[in-house]
Amino acid sequence: MKPKLPDARGHFGRFGGRFVPETLMAPLIELERAWSAAKRDRPFQQRLAGLLRDYAGRPTPLYHAARLSEQCGGARIYLKREDLCHTGAHKINNVLGQALLAARMKKGRLIAETGAGQHGVATATAAALLGLECDVYMGAEDVERQALNVFRMRLLGARVISVESGSRTLKDAINEALRDWVTNVRTTYYLLGSALGPHPYPMMVRDLHAVIGQETRRQTRGVLRRLPDVLVACVGGGSNAIGLFHPFIGDRRVRIIGVEPGGEGIATGRHGASMSAGAVGVLHGCMSYLLQSDDGQIATAHSISAGLDYPGVGPEHAYYRDAGRFEFVSITDAEALEGFEALTRLEGIMPALESAHAVAYAMRLAKTLPRSKAIVVGLSGRGDKDVHVVAKALGKAIG
Amino acid sequence: MTSRLDATFARLRDRGERALVPYFTAGDPSLADTRRLVVEAARRGADVIELGVPFSDPLADGPVIQRAAMRALAAGTTLPRLLETVAALRAEVSVPLVLLTYYNPVLAFGLAAFARAAVRAGVDGVIVADLPPEEADPLAREAEAAGLDLIHLVAPTSTPERVRLIARRSHGFIYVVALTGVTGERQELPPDLAAQIRTLRRVTTKPVCVGFGISTPAQVAAVGGLADGAVVGSAIVRLVEERAGSPSLVDDVGAFIAELKAPLRKGA
Hints:
The complex is a heterodimer of chains A (399) and B (268). Chain A has helices at 25-39, 42-54, 66-72, 91-104, 118-130, 140-145, 147-155, 170-184, 201-224, 239-245, 274-277, 315-322, 333-347, 353-367, 387-393, and strands at residues 11-12, 15-19, 62-64, 76-81, 109-114, 133-139, 159-163, 188-190, 230-234, 255-263, 279-283, 285-290, 326-332, 374-379. With 399 residues, chain A is an alpha/beta fold. In chain A, strands 3-4-14-9-10-13 form a 6-stranded mixed sheet, sandwiched between helices. Chain A has a 4-stranded antiparallel sheet with strand order 1-2-12-11. In chain A, α2 (42-54) packs antiparallel against α4 (91-104). Chain A is globular, with a radius of gyration of 19 Å. Chain B has a 9-stranded parallel sheet with strand order 5-4-3-2-1-9-8-7-6. The radius of gyration of chain B is 17 Å and the shape is globular. Chain B starts with a helix and ends in a 7-residue tail after the last helix. The mean pLDDT of chain B is 97. Chain B has a single domain (4-261), classed as Aldolase class I (TIM Barrel, Alpha-Beta Barrel). Classes of the chains: A alpha/beta (399), B alpha/beta (268).
């Protein structure tokens, strides 16, 4: 199975597409052309590869978490260490590529949305590096729970705009970024941070994160002399997951599992598991699975991790779920905290709460598999930003 | 079959008049108020009335209409209840009614069911803010089968080939988005509006209505010199917001509509 998706109009089967106001159609078509030209442009690709290596710190290691694996007493768990990327998460892979593209398109201003703040920090970083103006939209609730990242963005010279509308989280930040883009589309580049939105974003973001999976293939061949048995990654919008998964889609013997935020439990209705509990609909320019009411109003997601607090999911994930290629499971806030604590205590690696969802599921799965099996976990980011959230959840005060 | 929209624009053209197209967010502050507002608007000179279907994530709308949508949703407005209100209105008014919606509430209703239910209730057309012609085939098929006009928008960024595509696909009228931006009041009309409408007129004889950023009688008058109709949204919705709960709500909105219509009448 050699996937050739999306099609020319940005569809992954019935998912994806371009559901946007007419004002954005011509700019999206221009963006698609610019991206396909950049992909064939050798100096552009060399510059991106150089930045990924010397600036972002790629390739990231594949680390055998021996003590964690031992504790679980089953399959071996490997961590793809995106947390070691510059700025502390995988987000930089996509941001460097798109920021270079923005400069190539002669756009002097970047805008971005951010949930946990990781994509905002990465975008502010690239803007500083390339001398571009940068405005980041962030839900007011996320501004409160991710104060450290807000300050980092400001130090980097970006303006952080707190979004008070709707649920005051990532979905509303995307609405506001799209409103800005519709207004300033001639001068502004919208640097979308997840594998969703209108075509070409899901494809472009995937292409730029596919380096995660490509390195993992090489590294597992080196370490295991074969491909891994299972890939596990957290899925909010799904950018780190599609980056890890995509190069393995044709390898039918590799199980691919996306972990959604179960929040307080699917049954409580307070979660972000759009694959497990959502229905097909259109939000933010693409068709995918969404949390929504019977009459098509978008529901508010809930997750302890701001980066997974989104009521939709990238369209390519939706396609491969329906095709039976990707499996989706969910991990609750409480289980994610257990994953966070286990990895911190046993390996001295503090994961982002987003990534802790993947860690928690991998631990559960490892117990059911023999030692001969190898699980690769996409460790998408580091947990420094979440320490105060963890402290609060554990009922402990910092300092 | 000539649709009610076609007949309305033909009649206005014969009379040398331009259409005033006021917009209300349905259910703001309640569907009962929407019903009274529509009846009054028709009486005071509205030629076509747009009813906004409230949506949780209105990404093409500015703050005024966002707030109205939140109020309407908080008041329990849904698409089925809105259609019941339209059906009730049809006993009182014959003015063409056009729904302005985002795609997801329509998808959730079901495309075929929506088109049939809308026509049965007495809706004449539908505008879907986030449905460009490339994605519109499934809804266009159902709308055509049911006899519902699917109205498309052109934007200042639309390329000449997109303008042709949209002009061909749009039924009832063509909605010209006057500016790059979201809905909301602006001080000035965009300077390139006349050129944008000329470009469109070269490829179509369909009626052309202009919206986004048009809020005063003077701006309506200027648009009346260029197009077949002017859409006024946020200025009316803001007035509804200010007068909600007041006994003068309907009268005040009606007076504003009369003021907006005046420059569009023959010989004005």
